[in-house]
Amino acid sequence: MPVTTPSPRHSDPGAAAPGAPTLRPGTLGTSDIAFFVVSAAAPLTVMAGVAPLAILLGGVGAPVGYLLAGLTLAVFAVGFTAMSRHVRGAGAFYAYITRGLGRRVGIGAALLALLGYNGMEIGVYGLLGTATQDTVHALSGAHVPWLPVSLAGLLLIGYGGYRSIDFGAKVLGVLLAAETGILVLLAAGVLLKGGAHGLSASSFAPSHVLVPGMAAVLAFAFAAFTGFESTVIYRREARDPARTVPRATYLAVGFLGLFYAFVVWIAIQAFGDAEVVRAAGDDPAGLFFSAISTYVGGWAADTMHVLIVTSVLASLLAFHNAINRYGLALAEEGVLPRALARVHPRHRSPYVTGIAQTVLGAAVVLAFAAAGADPYQQLLLWVNTPGMLGLLVLQLLAALAVPLYFRRVSHHEGVLRTVVAPVTAAVLLSAAIVLVVTHLDLFTGASAAVNTALVAVVPLIFLAGFPLACWLRRHRPGVYERFAAEPADDTGAAAAP
């Protein structure tokens, strides 16, 4: 059973002083939170940049891979959102994992969350540089160096995180509408013209789905959903979080799964079942641009080039906001320095955490540039990959935490939500992690030694939480006992497993 200890929130070592500014409650609705989550996934970038490889490897059955990944994560969301109604702490993943699996595992999960979200953001600054290079070259033939673009992006995203959360939601709403809109325009062109040889449903035939390459497609598909679970990070700023957070989670998963599958199917129809694999192999980077030029016009391809850049910026801003709130929560816990818990008095944003994250990002980008590393092959892929794996492992740990948590507390949730769905999700997520690890060379294009090192980072960071937990228990017992506790403003007490 949980141990309940009276502990006013403001007495925590990292908590804000009485009267200090806090995050602005009641600001975000369901659509606002969904914008953050879907923007982090960068649908246009994923489709134009990765989907051609999925088609090349999995053939015309590739759309089903995205549906299966979405279905798996929807099953995960059943238990995850059920637990969200009971766990009101600000630590998202690590709070859930702590409540189900204990503080030591939870502290390891907190470190893994920092790795995961920072890795998913910082590596993308390399993609921002190369995407901007490609766009400028495609539109004007000029060449721009990637480093100034990435550093400018760091400053721009830092400013976006410094501003209020509703400012970020409005920006992401506009950018997301633009990037999904161009894909809808492509779809309309293909559907109106009937595709290359008429519309076909053969993508969903078992003979095209049950092929060896589908394992690789599933690995790409699960990676395409990374960050969807961050809905719970915005709990403190949500309107009616008990309803808003689950709705936003299901909305994000449902939209991404159906939209990804639909757009990949559209790309197949644009070239035809017999020709699309060859087209993807001949020019994977140009597949979507060629399709939209043919079915809509060259101006639409030019617009897509620009929107790739804004898609990357939207993803960066979404991950930056998520990282800032994780850092704020850990500073309030007393695990990170107390200064990181400061909230801007006017914008009500975790601006000190945001500044620290921007400085960290700049340090990593400059280090890769100084080493002469390739911004895409190394900065993006080598930094992103441990981040992606870290978030998949966190999803697995959260799925395992759900049934253990509900065994310890009184509740009125059904067995489907508290046992069947999370256990099923844990099995499926384990399979997803195996698929990603065994196909890692498709993500990185790196040597076996590099891939081994990238994978090894994830368990090493997680296991580092165990000695940290022991140190906290011995030297800062108050911090340890209150880690991932329920906030006093919700319950009047801080409870921890």
Descriptive notes:
This protein is mostly helical. The protein has one domain: Up-down Bundle (Amino acid/polyamine transporter I). It is built from 22 helices and two strands. The chain has helices at 30-41, 43-49, 51-58, 62-84, 92-101, 103-122, 124-140, 146-162, 165-193, 206-209, 214-224, 241-271, 276-282, 287-295, 298-333, 351-370, 375-408, 415-438, 440-444, 448-475, 477-482, 488-491, and strands at 3-5, 494-496. It is globular, with a radius of gyration of 22 Å. The N and C termini lie close together (7 Å). Pfam families: AA_permease (PF00324).
CATH superfamily: Amino acid/polyamine transporter I
Distance between the termini: 7 Å
CATH architect. name: Up-down Bundle
Helical residue percent band: over 70%
CATH top level class name: Mainly Alpha
In what range is the share of β-strand residues? under 5%
- Could you tell me the radius of gyration in angstroms? 22 Å
- The strand order across the widest sheet is 1-2
User: Could you say which structural class the secondary elements and strand pairing correspond to?
Assistant: mainly alpha
H/E series: EHHHHHHHHHHHHHHHHHHHHHHE
Low-confidence stretches: 1-15, 489-497
Strand count: 2
